[in-house]
Fold:
Amino acid sequence: MKQKFEGSTRVKRAQLQALHKDFEILYMKEGETVNAYFSRTLAIANKMKVYGESMGEPVIIAKILRTMISKFDYVVCSIEESNNLDKMTIDKLQSSLLIHEQRMRSRGEEE
Structure:
C-alpha cells in the first residue's frame, strides 16, 4: 500500500511540475480576447490547486498583468497604480480589462 501511495505522490509531483512550467511560460497571444486568456490562465491555476499548490489570487493577478499583450500596457499601468493588487479580485481585474477591450473594439483598434 505504501508503494502505491509513493507512486501516486510521484505522479502528482510530476504533473504539478508540468503545470508550473505551463504557468511560467503563459503569455497572452496576439488577437486573443481577455476572456480567453483568463480562461487559459485560470484553468492552469485550478489544476495546480487540485494537485496541492496553494496559489492565491495576488499571484494569478500579477501573472496576468505581467503577460498581457502590449496594447494593454497603459491600462495595466493604470490598474497597478490605482489598486492594491493584494486586495484586488480576479473578477475585478477581468472586468477592468474587458471594459478596456470593448472600448478598443468599438474604436476599431482590434483585429
